[in-house]
Amino acid sequence: MNNSLAPTYKKQIGEHCVLWYSKSNSYSVVESLFKRFLDYYLQSETIEDFKAKIASSIDDTGSETIPETIRDYLNNCNIPITTPVDKQIAIDASNRNILKQYSIKGKLIQIYYDSELVLKTVHPSLAHLTTDTTDYAQTTFDIYLKNEQLYLYKDEELITCVPKKDYHLLQGKFIMQLLCTIHNKEENDWIGTFHGSTLTDGNSSILFVGESGKGKSTLCALLAASGFNLLADDVSPMLSKNKSIYYNPSAISIKEGAFNVLQPHINNFDALPKIQFNKAKGFIKYLPCDNPEKDYYPCNAIILVNYKSNAETILENISIKTLLETLIPDSWLSPDPLHAKQFLDWIGRLNIYKLTYSDTKKVTQKISELFHQLNKNL
After folding, report:
1. CB 171 within 8 A of CB 218
2. What distance in Å separates the CA atoms of residue 252 and residue 217, rounded to the nearest whole number?
3. Distance CA 52, CA 104 (A)
4. How close are the terminal C-alpha atoms of the chain, in Å?
5. Which residues contact residue 179 at a Cβ distance below 8 angstroms, ignoring those fewer than 6 apart?
6. What is the pTM of this model?
7. Half-sphere exposure of 209 (CA within 13 A, CB side)
8. Beta strand ranges found along 55-106 (DSSP E)
9. Which of 115, 105, 89, 160 shows the shortest CA–CA distance to 138?
10. Per-residue pLDDT of the chain (378 residues; tens, 9 = 90+)
11. How far apart are CA 33 and CA 364, in angstroms?
């Protein structure tokens, strides 16, 4: 068969196999039976040869449909990556209407915005880092809206241009460039940036992931108020060199529905300004946290967070399939084969859990116990 469509890497994790296809930079989680049929298909010289190999495992109907199913699956997994190319459009400095300066890890970074609306795309999560100085800025960003397109420049070089409605794509590009700046890295140094928040106890870290509204940021805010350190909120970057998650200086974004939950636990919570950028998402507050002692920590566990009113606090193991269905869609993962292999090796060693909670004291105790358990293996 066409072995050029075969997965580049494969990793057996529990009852599932995770496959990575380099052409599409995509990950696929399959069950053992499908993986066995896939191997037979790729090893066979002809369709008839393949049918003979699987004849004892399925009925006649299956022998007719399975080859087509596998062929379609492989074709879908090998759709080439299409990377949009941003034309090098010269910066329009006339849009430099608002200047904000930020001091991060001893570096001065300045950002020009063209309006109060555009200011809300990035500034609120970094507002706690603002400074006012005449010192020389190591890096300058420009963000402005022109003809319903949002532009992001770094040191006057265009990084990306996206439609106004896709502002989250610009936010993602910006945070990547900011992380590169403060940690002295290039974009191709990272294994990926995971859509999740990471906490550390000073020894190791745990990545918390979950669908929107499941209480991920609320939990991290509670834990940060209980003595843990926030390493990264919403975007957790992992470096290839040491496979550790690095510090992201952004404040924790708290949705309006969690205000009453957090108010009793966080000092001066009511004083935090309420920001409304997207009316559909309501008001948001940004909670700054104390910096961790170090810039990076190894991550040995991922927790899928599920807040449920009046639920018992339960921490249970889950499959890699359940985890990756949540982790991958909104994360950026490097297309570099070395990084893909590192990612597979990492998730193969991870402790993977689902946390259901409602009681703030019990969940804090549960996470403390987990950190203690994980640190025994360091």
Report:
1. no
2. 7
3. 63
4. 45
5. 185, 190, 193, 235, 237, 246, 248
6. 0.94
7. 23
8. 98-104
9. 105
10. 778 999 999 999 999 999 999 999 999 999 999 999 999 999 999 999 888 888 877 765 666 789 999 999 999 999 998 776 667 899 999 999 999 999 999 999 999 999 999 999 999 999 999 999 888 999 999 999 999 999 999 999 999 999 999 999 999 999 999 999 999 999 999 999 999 999 999 999 999 999 887 889 999 999 999 999 999 999 999 999 999 999 999 999 999 989 998 999 999 999 999 998 777 778 999 999 999 999 999 999 999 999 988 899 999 999 999 999 999 999 999 999 999 999 999 999 999 999 999 998 999 999 999 999 998 876
11. 40
Vertex 106, ends 100 and 110: CA angle to 5°?
Answer: 20
DSSP for 293-313? SSSEEEEEEEEEEEE-TT---
Strand partners, 291: none
Using DSSP, state whether 56 is helix, strand or coil: coil
What three-state secondary structure class fits 324?
A: helix
User: Residues 329, 334, 336, 340: is their CA dihedral positive or negative?
Assistant: negative
Query: Which SS3 state, helix, strand or coil, does residue 122 take?
Result: helix
Where residue 300 falls (left for φ over 0; alpha for ψ -120 to 50; beta otherwise) is alpha
Rounded CA-CA distance 158/243 in Å is 29
Q: How far apart are CA 182 and CA 249, in angstroms?
A: 9
User: Residue 357: enclosing H or E segment and its boundaries?
Assistant: strand 351-357
257: left (phi over 0), alpha (psi -120 to 50) or beta: alpha
